[in-house]
Amino acid sequence: MQAAIALLLAAIAQAPLSDLWDMDAIKNDPLFAEIISEQTVEKDGIQINLREIRYLSHVWNGQEIRIAGHLAVPPSEKPLPAMILVTGNAEEAARTAASAGAVILAIDRVGEGNSTGPNDMYANWLDLSEETDIRNSWMRHYAMSATRAVTYLHTLEEVNPNAVGVSGWSRGGLCSLLAAAVDRRIRLCVPIAATGDFGSTEKYEHNWIVSHILNPLNLTTESMEWIRFKTNYDPLHYLDQIRAAVWIVNGAQDEYFPITSTAAFAQRLNAKSRLALIYDADHGYFGTETGLYDSYLNPGIGPRIGSSLRKAIRSVLHEEGVLPQTPELSVEMHERRIDFSAAVDQSAPVRAARFIYSLDGAYTFQRVELLDPSLPETGELRISVSAARPEQLAAFIEVEYMDGGGVFYIASAPYLSEGFTPKIRPAF
Description:
Layout: H1 2-12, H2 23-28, E1 34-43, E2 46-60, E3 63-73, E4 80-85, H3 90-100, E5 103-107, H4 122-125, H5 138-154, E6 159-169, H6 171-182, E7 186-192, H7 198-201, H8 208-214, H9 224-233, E8 245-251, H10 259-266, E9 274-278, H11 301-317, E10 328-333, E11 337-343, E12 350-358, E13 366-370, E14 380-386, E15 394-403, E16 406-411, E17 415-416
Parallel strand pairs: 4-5, 4-6, 6-7, 7-8, 8-9
Antiparallel strand pairs: 1-2, 2-3, 3-5, 10-11, 11-14, 12-13, 12-15, 15-16, 15-17
Helix pairs in contact: 5-6
C-alpha cells in the first residue's frame, strides 16, 4: 500500500506546477523601491554611477522579502542593456558595467547580506513536506527575487527593457535558469557552475545531493520533501520553456553538476544557446599544488568565465559581433584507436582548437592542442588517438575565437559513451 501511495504521489509530481509563478504579480505588484546611497566610482577609466538600492520581491507567510542590491550604471546617451547578477557585489557590478557597457544589478541572496527572508539553508530548500505549500522552498524565493529585479530594471530610464539578462554562480546559476524559464522578459541567461539534472546526479557515487542535503536532514532520495523539490525546482524540467539564449559555463570535472548534467542541458537547449566547458575545472573547492586539477579559484579559470559573460552580453544584449555556431563533434571508437572529427564555424577568427577527452569517467582529461588549426574551407578537423577501447569515454572540442571584444571559447556538446557514469571526487 505504501509503495502504491508513493507511486501515486510521484505521478502527481511529474511536471512543475503552473501556480508556482504568478507572472502578473511579478510584473505589476508594487516594488516600493528606494535608493539607500549613491556615489561615482572609476573603473578602467570609466565613471560608474553606483547606487545601493532596495526593492520588494514578494510577501510570504506575512513577511516582506526585500532585496538589497548594487546598481552600476555606465555613462550613455541611450538606454543600455542590463544584467542581473544574483551572486555578486558592488565591486563586481561596477567592474562588469565598465567592461560590458551595460547596467549591472548585483543582488544579495534572499536572507543573506541586507536582503530579508528565510536563510539560505538546505533545510529551507526542502521545507516541503506533503502538507506544505510547494512555494515554500527557498529556491522559489530566490528565483522570485531575480524576476522582480527584471521588473525593477524596467522602471529605469537608463535600461533598454528589451535587453535584460541574468547570471549567477552555483545555486545562483540554478536561480538564473529558473528565472529565465519563468520570465519571458529575460533574453540572456548565463549560469556558471550550475545546470541541474538532479534525478541522475543523485545516483552517482560521492554525489553532493546525498552527502550535503539528504543525509544531514535525515532524508533519502525517496523522501517526499526531496521528490517535491527536484520535481518543481530542477531547471532540467523547465528547459522547453526557456526562450532566452543560455550560455552555460561549467567545469568538466564539476562535483555538483557533473558532465552528464552538462550533456543533458546542451542537447536540449535552443539554437541561440552556447556552452563553455572548461577542462580541468571543478566547482571551486579543490586544487592541488601540482596543478593537476585546477579549479574555479585558479587565476586561469576566472578570465574564461569573464570572457564568456562579456561575449554573451555583446552578442545577445548589445547585438554586436558574430556569434559562431556550436561546433559539432563526432567520435568513432575502434579496438585500439579513437577517431575524433569536428565541424568548426569560421565566421569569427579561430585562434586555436582543442580536442579534449577522458578515458576514466571525466575524472582526468587529456587534450590535443591545435594552436594553429589551419582550417580547411570546410572547417573540418580530424585527429586519431591511440587508446584501448574505453568503457567510460567523455569528449568535447573547444574552439578559441577572437573578436573586437577579446577572446572567447565555445565548446561542443559533450560526447559520452553508452552507459557513461562520471567518476566524481567527494565534494566535502
